[in-house]
């Protein structure tokens, strides 16, 4: 059996799709299944058992001998939520529980960290573990991910193989339920469909022109390929960046979306909201040398390739993966 937490969510459901394509069908899907809108993501997938998030610890105590691997993707990811107690419960304490169960029962573990741990990038975007305690995230979500990374690195006992993945700006199918937290591409597609135009934030810094703020956008199909690689690799434990290593501008993203939709480019610029302006990231780019150094050599989708696949094969026909 392979455990996937956050199974009904965006990345978790895409990971299950890839595992099914590779003929891994004994999937234990873990989530809070009380949100029916997310359950569409699991339709048509081969799943052996569904386990409520709150029942996983007890389930593992009974079924651990059957578990081959654990992907801990589930988390509270809302960067606009400022109740620290929610993140402590769902992102930190829950992850500690699962970490310790994986030690007790000799289960290899891959868990989702986040590029939100890097804050404004004052120390760059290098996954050097010595720098992790010095990072300054911008919100409680980023704090929670960094807190767990620090805790994991400080543990004397660790799973025999483990990896924490700092996801950068992920986009792709099955994110429709994330609303405000969905990718810019998802929002761009909806705006263009409804209005024929796209609104992007103006630059409020003299060294960037409007729409030239840059992010490392990674297609979810690349992300799950890395997860499968680590499941098969099972050595070189540690914390890894997971982006493409190439920053692209929001203008590039917008143009790619118009092209994929077969529409004329029409981009307008609006002020960045004042309440987020001083915490707005103008540049992120993952240093990917560490992952490549352990043997991951598959090329990543370019932004244009990823947007085209996402728009034409999933958004336009309203398909799930």
Overall description:
This protein is an alpha/beta fold and 321 residues long. The chain has a domain at 2-171 and 217-245 and 287-301: Rossmann fold. The protein contains 10 helices and 13 strands. A 7-stranded parallel beta sheet has the order 3-2-1-4-5-6-11, with helices on both faces. A two-stranded parallel sheet has the order 7-10. The longest helix has 21 residues, at 84-104. Substrate binds at residues 169, 180, 187, 201-204, 215, 280.
Please tag this protein with its features.
NADP; alpha/beta; two-stranded parallel ribbon; Rossmann fold; seven-stranded parallel beta sheet; ADP-glyceromanno-heptose 6-epimerase activity; EC 5.1.3.20; globular; 10 helices
Helix-strand blueprint:
Elements: E1 2-5, H1 10-21, E2 27-31, E3 49-52, H2 56-63, E4 69-72, H3 84-104, E5 109-114, H4 140-154, E6 162-167, E7 169-171, H5 184-195, E8 198-201, E9 214-215, E10 217-219, H6 220-233, E11 238-242, E12 248-249, H7 250-261, E13 267-270, H8 274-277, H9 289-293, H10 303-315
Helix pairs in contact: 1-6, 3-4, 5-7, 7-10
């Amino acid at each position: 059996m392979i455990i996937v937490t956050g199974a009904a969510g965006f990345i978790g459901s895409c990971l299950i799709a890839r595992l099914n394509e590779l003929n891994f069908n004994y999937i234990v899907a873990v989530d809070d299944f009380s949100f029916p809108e997310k359950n569409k993501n699991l339709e048509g997938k081969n799943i052996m058992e569904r386990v409520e998030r709150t029942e996983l610890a007890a389930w593992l105590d009974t079924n651990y001998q059957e578990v081959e691997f654990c992907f801990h993707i589930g988390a509270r990811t809302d960067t606009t939520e400022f109740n620290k107690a929610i993140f402590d419960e769902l992102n930190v304490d829950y992850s500690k529980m699962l970490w310790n169960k994986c030690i007790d029962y000799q289960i290899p573990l891959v868990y989702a960290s986040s590029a939100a741990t890097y804050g404004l990038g004052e120390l760059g975007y290098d996954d050097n573990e010595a720098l992790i305690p010095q990072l300054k995230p911008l919100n409680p979500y980023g704090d929670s991910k960094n807190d767990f990374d620090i805790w994991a690195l400080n543990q004397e006992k660790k799973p025999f193989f483990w990896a924490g993945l700092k996801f950068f700006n992920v986009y792709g199918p099955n994110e429709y339920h994330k609303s405000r937290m969905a990718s810019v591409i998802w929002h761009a597609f909806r705006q263009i469909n409804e209005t024929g135009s796209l609104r992007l934030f103006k630059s409020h810094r003299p060294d960037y022109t409007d729409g030239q703020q840059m992010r490392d956008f990674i297609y979810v199909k690349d992300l799950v390929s890395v997860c499968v690689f680590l499941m098969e690799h099972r050595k070189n434990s540690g914390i890894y960046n997971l982006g493409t290593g190439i920053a692209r501008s929001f203008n590039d993203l917008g143009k790619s979306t118009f092209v994929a939709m077969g529409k004329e480019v029409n981009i307008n610029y609006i002020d960045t909201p004042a309440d987020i302006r001083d915490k707005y990231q103008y540049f992120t780019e993952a240093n990917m040398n560490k992952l490549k150094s352990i043997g991951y050599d598959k090329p990543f989708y370019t932004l244009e390739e990823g947007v085209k696949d996402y728009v034409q094969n999933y958004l336009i026909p309203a398909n799930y993966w």
